[in-house]
Amino acid sequence: MLKVFCSPARYTQGPHATLQLGPEIHNLGIESPALIVAGRSAVLLLSEDWVKTFADVGMSFEVFPFAGECTAAEIRRGRQAAVASKARVIGAGGGKVLDTARAIASDLGLPVVNCPTIASSDAPCSALSVIYTEAGAVEEYRIYRRNPDLVLVDTAVIARSPARHLVSGMGDALATWFEAKVCVEGGVKNMRGGASTRSALALAELCYKTLLADGMAALEALRRKETNDSLERLVEANTLLSGLGFESSGLAAAHAIHNGLTKAAETHPFMHGEKVAFGVITQLMLESQPPGVVEEVLTFSRSVGLPVTFAEVGIANPSRELLEIVAQRATAAGETIHNEPFPVTPALVAEAMRAADSVGAAFLNRNGGKNL
Ligand SMILES: [Zn+2]
Questions:
Q1: What's the CA gap between 6 and 49, in Å, rounded?
Q2: Span from the CA of 121 to the centroid of ligand 1 (angstroms)
């Protein structure tokens, strides 16, 4: 199997990076007007900087106000607006805004520019997006031929985002190293259909080390609405390292457990990375990892406020039937849980989830903590 590594063509990050958006896209050879697909808070936070940065390179721009859901209809509406003004498309906001902008740009064969305003998952650097129905259910995953041409992250904006979003991004990033290792050891295909490279695995490991070293300090900086070196490193881990690690090495049990948990309506108020974090502990149980590894993950999760028990993902004392439904979904044909180096059955998953809940609860007891 050939090794395949993929990444965005350009990644730019730092406080007030938005002021460089004009020159950055100018460097990509984009000279026509820009259509910025943006949520309301991105418009409030960034409009002034957009005016300045586009004036710097003599470009005009218009804002396409995002209606709130990444649906086929919203993508069509955006495509019409982009065609009408012969514009290049830029996404600015959370995951759904970026997914919409990326779908519009890709339908029109245009470069993809992502400006995430939160660091809540590793999606901005990847080449896939999730399309929803009008009712808010997942309709399809779209996989694009190319990763974004530019991902620009303004850490002064991230510093003003809700703490829970950053923590959720840490939960998503927490899975990267553990899932990447499984894929590499098993010699399975990554998300791009190739084998992993040493580069991707090294980035995944750096991702984990960065969370442990900088997670707490980054969160404290964000609570003060300030940027510092820890927040810079952590945002890079959540966005770039985790994105490259998962896409170029692969996913395993943790994300499949997440997908299983989405079957329980009680988990819907919880963010992607929060459910993935519980999936990580379950994966460690499934693999019978040594207590030291489990303790390190629990200590980290607790320090930043990621869930470690059933109760903390909304399913305190789940029934046998509910766990069965979750485990069935987690082990569906084609799920990444089958990248684990042994046959994974629904019964094994249910047992591993129970074990994860009990080590999490025991950890909380020992450390005088309560459920979140
Ligand atoms: Zn994820």
A1: 31
A2: 6
